[in-house]
Amino acid sequence: MCDKHLHDEIGDDHMSANLETPLRDDAFELSAEEKVEKIEADFRNIMETLGLDLTDDSLKGTPKRVAKMFVKEIFGGLLPERKPGMSTFENKYNYNQMLVEKDIVVYSTCEHHFLPIVGRAHVGYISKGKVIGLSKMNRIVEYYAKRPQVQERLTMQIVKAMQEALGTDDVACIVDAKHLCVNSRGIKDIESSTVTAEYGGAFKDNEQLRKEFIAYIGMKTPFNV
C-alpha cells in the first residue's frame, strides 16, 4: 500500500498521545435534547443523500431513533452526568492480594469509521486501604467505552479512573476486542482481535505479578446451576 493510501486508511493521530477523548471547548454547551434534535436533522440529510425514501413507514422514524441512540446510548459516555460515582470503602478486612474483575463486556465505537468495537475487559488492582464496589468497575468500563474510541486510549482511561478512585497506582487492565472496521470492511478479517494492556504501579514493575494477573484472566468460571 502506498503512503497516501495508508494515510487515508489510518488518518491523522491514530496513536494520539492524549489520554483524554478529543473534545471541543464547547462540547457541553448543548443539552442532550438539543443534540438529539441537531443529529436527527443531520442524519435525515444523510439518508436522503443515499436516496432513501423517508416517507416509507419503516424509515420515517429512523433519523430520530439514530439521534437518540447516538446521544443517550452508544455515545452516552460523552455526557458528564453519566460518569459513575467513584465511591470506595475502607478495606477493613485487610485483603492485600490482587482483586480481578474479568470478562467485563465492552461495546464501544471506533472513532475512525464509527463501527462497533466488541470485546472483553479485565481489570485488576491491589488495595492500599480502599476497595471499590465490583459493579463500579463494570460501570467505569462502560462509561469510557460509550464514546468514539481507540482501544489503546480506552484501556488507559480505565486504569487512570481506577487509580484516581482507589488512590493507588497498582491497577492493571487488558482489553481483547474485535473491531468491525477490520472484520466487516477493508481487509474483512473476521477472526482477528486486538489486545491492549495498561499496567500501573506494582503491575508495571513486577513481572511475576503481571503473569499472575494474566493467569487469573485465563481461569474459567462455569455456572452449572
Descriptors:
about 220 residues, alpha+beta, GTP Cyclohydrolase I, Chain A, domain 1, GTP Cyclohydrolase I, domain 2, two-stranded antiparallel sheet, 8 helices, disordered N terminus, GTP cyclohydrolase I activity, GTP binding, GTP_CycHdrlase_I_dom
Indicate the mean pLDDT: 92
If you consult CATH, what is the topology of the largest domain? GTP Cyclohydrolase I, domain 2
The portion of residues assigned to helices is 25-40%
Radius of gyration: 20 Å
Strand tally, please? 7
Count the DSSP helices. 8
Q: Say which CATH homologous superfamily of the largest domain is assigned.
A: GTP cyclohydrolase I, C-terminal domain/NADPH-dependent 7-cyano-7-deazaguanine reductase, N-terminal domain
* Arrangement of strands in the largest sheet: 5-2-3-6-7
- Return residue spans where pLDDT drops below 50 for at least 5 consecutive residues: 1-8, 10-14
End-to-end distance: 53 Å
**What composes the largest sheet?**
5 strands, mixed
Beta-strand share of residues: 15-25%
CATH architectural group of the largest domain? 2-Layer Sandwich
Count of discrete domains: 2
**Helix- and strand-based class?**
alpha+beta
**What is the C-level CATH assignment of the largest domain?**
Alpha Beta
What's the overall geometry? globular
Order of helices and strands: HHHEEEEHEHEHEHH
